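Hello,

Our lab assistant flagged a job as stuck in the queue for most of the afternoon. It eventually completed. Since we weren't sure the result was trustworthy after the delay, we are filing this so someone can double-check. Below is the sequence as submitted and the structure that was eventually returned. Let us know if re-running is recommended.
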Amino acid sequence: MNIKEIFEFYEQYIKPIYSEIEAKRNNIPVELLFETYAAFDHLKRFYIDNEEESIATLKAISHLKRGILDAFKLKLKYFNQDLEDFIKYQDSLELVDNSNFLSGFLKDKNNIFKLGKEARLVESKISKEEAFEKWFEVSLKIDDFEEKYFNQLEKVEWAKKKQFRFLNQDTTKGFFIGIVSSIVASLIWSMINAN
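-- returned structure --
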């Protein structure tokens, strides 16, 4: 590997995921910056300390890959936080697309969790290279999920309004049935006591 390839990796993988993480929470976690800093320190060793290019780039790419794996994990963490906020509307989601929206939502969510678990196992037991591929797959699934579900707020808002209307109608009906039942019960009681 040479230095040009390090910068191509940075441009193709690191920059997009770091930008996404930054855009999501308006900051870049320090762990990601440490790995980038360490990578550039190894590149500096080639230019200033006369370290062999192959050694400097091998160590630099190792840090960048650790940084990208951390970024993928943060993306999954942020996804879980967004999921918690979104799942509050689960009762309303049953109304969207005749429950197909919720069914797909739960299926796709479980698939992401399954892939995330696989990625963690591959990372700890097999290799960082294969883990990178798995985590990249998780990242793409999260992107698809967000587009398919989180970005459908108009459907969710419609369902929340519909559910609110149903609840109000049911509450109103229950209230009137309660009043009518009370009146009927009072009349019957009065009739029983009158005899």
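-- support follow-up --
The delay was a queue issue, not a problem with the job. The result is valid. The longest helix spans residues 153-194. The mean pLDDT is 82.
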